[in-house]
Amino acid sequence: MKRQGILGLDIGGTKTAVVEGTTDGKVVRRTQFATNVERGFEAVFGDIVNAIEGKRRSSGLEIAALSVSVGGPLDVLQGIVLSPPNLPGWDRIPLKQLLVEQFHLPVFVEHDGNAGALAEWYFGAGQGTRSMIFLTMGTGLGAGLILDGRLYRGASDVAGEVGHIRIAEEGPFCYGKAGSLEGYASGTGISRLAQMLFPGRWPEAPDMIALSDAARGGDADAHRVFQTAAQALGRGLAMMADVLNPERIVMGGLGMRLQDLLVEPALRIFAEEALPRAAAVCRIVPAALGESIGDVASLCAALDQGNLLKDT
Question: 248, CA 20 to 30 Å: which among 43, 99, 169, 199?
Fold first, then answer.
């Protein structure tokens, strides 16, 4: 008898991964392809269908469900994608319905920040906690919230949109406003921050890898960019700790890759800004799942909403 499994979809603006995994969060196999969103939804959906069909035919598991992690905004339970900024043209796409009709399997859809929070809570740095925050910290900045032992989505599925918080009166324009936390502490935001602070040096927003390499090489301008970003991030972390009083804040993306340039100086600001009692119980750590977090997260909508984790 085949072991029960899940096919996960991690849909992003740059790449889409199809993940074959087990109900204890183990990734068995994965494939990925360039999303190429400029082709429109129908073309991308065709690629998704082909990839799922290939995985399903060759799987050694009994596939119990399809599980989707995708950027918001979303109607999570209906599985409707509501015009995410990284998926232009995906306007009110009934993704769950389309996948059910195509594959006749249970389908569960989750915001990528929430899926990341579940992945780290079940299998990573959040294990054993009842309250934690997971920060995506990629091209954009969002959060997934585990509060009192359960995922918290809010009244209209927008809980955790911490990148939208205005952290300063002026700053890079991201997430619909200047001065947002996303504008200072996301990949897009930090690149735009460099352009804003040093327009003569960077008339166009620089590549993040080149910018971080320059800072590590002793470039004073690049170092100032990261110091400015870290100050904003530290204040944002303090705000989250004071409001939600979590046991842990788990950082994905840049929070894993830029510990020296971004996180360590941000933690010094956090210690100055947060309430002492909130800071005393809050550990701020990189995601334990590392670069595999997106794959594991893609399985977590089914594990959480479909209660499949109990079968491990």
Answer: 169
**Could you read off the pLDDT of 151-163 as tens digits, one per residue?**
999 999 889 999 9
Q: Are 240 and 115 a contacting pair, CB within 8 Å? A: no
Supply the mean pLDDT for the chain. 94
Residue 98 burial (C-beta neighbours within 10 Å; 0-12, 13-18, 19+): middle
Rg (CA), the chain: 19
What's the pLDDT at 71?
A: 87
Residue 311 pLDDT exceeds 90: no
- Model pTM score: 0.92
CB neighbourhood size of 185 (10 A): 31
Q: Tens digit of pLDDT for each residue in 222-273?
A: 999 999 999 999 999 999 999 999 999 999 999 999 999 999 999 999 999 9
**CA terminus-to-terminus distance, the chain:** 15
Helix 187-197 / helix 220-244 crossing angle, nearest 10 deg: 130
DSSP, residue by residue, the chain: -PPEEEEEEEE-SSEEEEEEEETTS-EEEEEEEE--GGG-HHHHHHHHHHHHHHHHHH-SSEEEEEEEEE-SSEETTTTEEE--TTSTT-EEE-HHHHHHHHH-S-EEEEEHHHHHHHHHHHHSTTTT-SSEEEE--SSS--EEEEETTEEE--TTS-TT-GGGSB-SSS--EETTEETBHHHHHSHHHHHHHHHHH-TTT-SSPPPHHHHHHHHHTT-HHHHHHHHHHHHHHHHHHHHHHHHH--SEEEE-THHHH-IIIIIHHHHHHHHHHS-HHHHHH-EEEE-TTGGGHHHHHHHHHHHHHT-GGGG-
| 256/262 Cα distance (integer angstroms) | 10
The domains located in the chain, with CATH, are 4-116+292-311 (3.30.420.40), 128-288 (3.30.420.40)
